[in-house]
Amino acid sequence: MDLFDCIVIGSGHAGSCAALSAVEHGCQRVLIIDKCPEEWVGGNGYFTAGAHRTVHGGLYDLLSIVKNRPSPEVLERIDMTPYTRENFASDIMRLGDGKSDPALVDALVDNSRDAVDWLAKYVGTPFTFSFNRQAYEVNGRQKFWGGMVLSVEDGGKGLIAAHQRALEKAGVMVWFDSPALSLVTKGDSVSGVVVRKDGQEVELGARAVILAAGGFEASAELRERHLGAGWKLARVRGTPYNTGDGFALAKAVGAKFTGDWGGCHSTCWDASAAADAGERDLTNQFTKSGYPLGIMVNANGLRFVDEGEDYRNYTYAKFGRAILHQPGGFAFQIWDSKVIRHLRKEEYGDGITEKIFADSLSELADKLAGHGLGQKSTFLETLDHFNAAVRHHRDEYPGLQWDPAVKDGFSTQSSVTKLALPKSNWALTLDTPPYMAVKVACGVTFTFGGLSIDARSAAVLSESGREIGGLFCTGEMVGGLFYNNYPGGSGLTAGAVFGRKAGRAAAQTIR
Ligand SMILES: Cc1cc2nc3c(=O)[nH]c(=O)nc-3n(C[C@H](O)[C@H](O)[C@H](O)COP(=O)(O)OP(=O)(O)OC[C@H]3O[C@@H](n4cnc5c(N)ncnc54)[C@H](O)[C@@H]3O)c2cc1C
Q: Where does the record place the FAD-dependent oxidoreductase 2 FAD-binding domain (predicted)?
């Protein structure tokens, strides 16, 4: 029987971090197995924008790790406020309704800055400042917003390419088309993995096994079972291979499940996107995150969320669910010519999505009817009430400045009019043609429920609360960190933080 120091199940970002950390801390024979074919390497990590949320001390704190270091003149024009550990922890807690496990939150937050440094220096991740996604140019200044400032050059493709180079250099073996079928145990500990390789079931020995096999978001059956009725209609944004296998393996050895099993990360996603898997060329470009600058209406012509409730990266992960629950499971995002230029090119550029233009709201309604809008009169009424509410607010607060980079208080709620469903920030009238609309559906990203782990070592805990010897976990499989909603850019950082811990703890088991 082949014996490894450490076997990692899953070749995504979290699994790659774990394998590299295992080597860094002394493991010699490290193997990653993935059930996907080689052309699907990188799991969901490949599909990301590469956004990493981290504690930081402002612009000059991060300069040493970014590739797109701005010129001195541009540096002078950047506003980037520090993001403290309290900011990061309170964002997770606030969005998770206070339910997140404080030990996991502290571990993520306190190790986030060190993790991005490690990714930059040890893995070679080409970080960049995220000008296109996280900053707006306002009055000649580049203003970052929403606490998140780092992306990766070429997004998830650049992230996974860096991992592949680092894994090769570190001598980590990677087997594709090799699903883990079960965990092998000796006494109370895990001592190996049964894998299907070249059509054969093979038992491999391992001193440590790290679970990094993703959530169950790509299984329509498990989505329907855990997330609820209707979730089979969600479109899978990333890899089709995250079908909950890791949880079945862990359950069979008595692992404890925890967290928000009814919750997931889901976003506004192009309604024309495929249902069962992401697309490896356009990847994250099917995301449609321009709603804070406009409004969203459902098939009945009604708004259904406060599009300006918070910065986009604090609302986008829950609005997919809101769309799924609308009639037909779709919605329309709508803007007028005042803001169209602010929409991100990679999501709304020509040839990226179907854009529906019209010179009047009535014409727009007629065109949207061909895409599923059922109630033209309600749609026009919604726009009418919305515009009136915005105008009343403007009359009452003439001194306010519209600013997409801050929560500007441009709202629909004045002493004259209050909409039953407000738009709390960035509310502008939709009255200047041409109008533009895009049809969106719910894209499911990853699931929140997972395994209970020790926050210090990433060891998997058993139902009785003790550590299962030789078994560790990272990435989407970790439960208890996110509930209901999520601050954008936290998933990759969490995968790195707990992956590093798992790799280090795996190495300790061989000492
Ligand atoms: C479109 C999109 C955009 C995103 N953008 C961002 C972003 O910008 N920033 C951010 O922080 N997060 C983002 N995320 C979330 C992020 O991708 C995840 O948080 C992170 O990649 C999870 O890493 P992971 O290694 O746990 O899972 P994955 O990267 O999905 O890896 C899991 C791997 O396990 C393999 N596997 C499954 N079952 C088995 C089995 N039985 N045997 C062997 N292997 C198995 C799968 O094939 C897969 O390769 C995005 C996700 C998507 C889909």
A: 5-490
